[in-house]
């Protein structure tokens, strides 16, 4: 490999390290909400918190896009089928929607929303039994957050190095294949 290729690789690795060292944004508590103190919403499940409120789905998602996703240059948002919440968060969770904000190789924030009035898994006439009353206050929505963070920056860097090595090997192999047919 010539010196230019080494310089490019060193520059790419410096950028990767800078990206991994870039601080994660704080995950704010949802505005206009009451933080849940129910079992499973506090310390019983690691990295889980929940909030009761009367916000619509788009208001909740916009809040986390504005206050979390937009604070990191490479964050992306993905919409998941709500059934996945039982695997990702906890098997007893009620769900209406599940979205994820990903900061690649650094953190995922899952946003699960449940609106008892729009529960697609309960017949309309039976939904009233799911009404949420907390401290004599009625809420239409419960939002549960779950974060996943890789165990270390070194592990993330190692994975990125493996990806980089795979790309270099693949490009080198293609170059040999196409040069041998000339």
What does this structure look like?
The chain has 182 residues and is of the alpha+beta class. It has one domain (24-152). The chain contains four helices and eight strands, in the order H-E-E-H-E-H-E-E-E-E-E-H. It has a six-stranded antiparallel β-sheet, covered by helices on one side. It has a two-stranded antiparallel ribbon with strand order 6-7. A hairpin with a 3-residue loop joins strand 4 and strand 5. Helix 1 (3-21) packs antiparallel against helix 4. The longest helix has 28 residues, at 153-180. The protein is elongated. 19% of the residues are buried.
Topology order in helix (H) and strand (E) letters: HEEHEHEEEEEH
Number of helices: 4
Counting copies of identical and different chains, the oligomeric state is single chain
Structure classification: alpha+beta
How far the N terminus sits from the C terminus, by CA atoms, comes to 22 Å
Mean pLDDT: 91
In what order do the strands lie side by side in the largest sheet? 1-2-8-5-4-3
Beta-strand content estimate: 15-25%
Largest sheet: 6 strands, antiparallel
The figure for the number of domains is 1
What gross morphology would you assign? Answer: elongated
Q: What share of the residues lie within helices? A: 25-40%
Q: Care to count the β-strands?
A: 8
> Rg from C-alpha positions?
22 Å
């Amino acid at each position: 490999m010539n010196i230019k290729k080494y310089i490019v690789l060193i520059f790419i690795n410096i950028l990767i390290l800078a990206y991994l060292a870039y601080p994660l944004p704080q995950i704010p508590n949802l505005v206009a909400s009451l933080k849940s103190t129910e079992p499973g919403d506090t310390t019983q499940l690691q990295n889980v918190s929940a909030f009761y409120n009367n916000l619509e789905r788009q208001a909740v998602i916009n809040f986390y896009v504005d206050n979390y996703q937009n604070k990191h240059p490479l964050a992306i948002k993905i919409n998941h089928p709500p059934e996945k919440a039982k695997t990702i968060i906890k098997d007893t969770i009620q769900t209406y929607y599940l979205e994820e904000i990903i900061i690649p190789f650094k953190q995922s924030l899952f946003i699960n929303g449940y609106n008892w009035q729009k529960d697609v898994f309960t017949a309309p006439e039976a939904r009233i039994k799911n009404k949420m009353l907390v401290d004599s206050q009625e809420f239409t929505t419960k939002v549960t957050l779950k974060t996943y963070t890789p165990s270390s920056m070194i592990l993330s860097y190692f994975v990125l190095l493996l990806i980089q090595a795979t790309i270099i090997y693949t490009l080198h192999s293609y170059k040999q294949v196409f040069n041998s047919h000339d």
